[in-house]
Design goal:
227 residues, mainly alpha, 3 helical TM bundles of succinate and fumarate reductases, two-stranded antiparallel ribbon, 11 helices, 2 strands, 3% strand, binds protoporphyrin IX containing FE
Amino acid sequence: MSNFLTASIGRKFIMSLSGLFLMMFICVHLGINLLLIFDDSGDLFNQGAHFMATNPLIKIMEPVLGLGFIVHIVWSFILSYKNYQARPVSYSKTNQSDSSTWASRNMLVLGALVLVFLVTHVMNFFWKIKFTGDPLLDHVLVNGEEMENTYALVSVLFKSSVIYGIVYILGGILLGLHLGHGFWSSFQTLGFANKIWLKRLQIVGQVFAILVAIGFSVIPLYFLIKF
Ligand code: HEM
């Protein structure tokens, strides 16, 4: 087992599994976040956020999610370093662009930029909700149930700051670029190497990446344009 994990394919296996797990989180996260633009009263989004904050299963998954991010990020650096060591003479630029996409050759850079976005993002919302608190979060009543006003925290940021709006739009686009390669590449590593399946997965991956990029970007854009 330890030989498998230290072999190149084993190292990629961990990236793929953690990446696919994070993609599932991204789907759920995007679904809940889109409630922000479908109900300007904020009730729908607050209910979604309240469900995520109180559901016992989600609570168990939270540290697993954190671990998933850590494994994926740390492993990406280890993998890139090992690849760099194994290939001291870099390929010529023309050969690289002939056989691969720009995103596939820049996964580490794209991932690192997503990480910069993620740190900013966590400080904006997660940190305040979990640790420091914020006056905007003062409880509201939704259908007779008391809950934190997460809608106010998010919407006030997007309504009041064009810069943050742009940061979040860029974050969505970067994530989309990262996933455009990451999606099908994960399946390839897990054994879907057959030519027909690979082609199909590449198309599904592109559609998924575009939906993620548009889905996340449309939220700050909505607040920038409407308010
Ligand atoms: C318009 C874009 C986005 C909005 C409005 C948004 C909103 C939020 C909010 C409100 C939270 C805090 C949830 C809570 O703790 O109760 C959160 C947490 C988080 N977000 Fe986002 N998010 C956006 C984009 C993204 C993107 C693109 C990623 C992934 C790269 C991401 C990853 C995370 C993570 C890892 C957490 C912490 C875990 C969690 O609380 O579930 N978010 N987001």
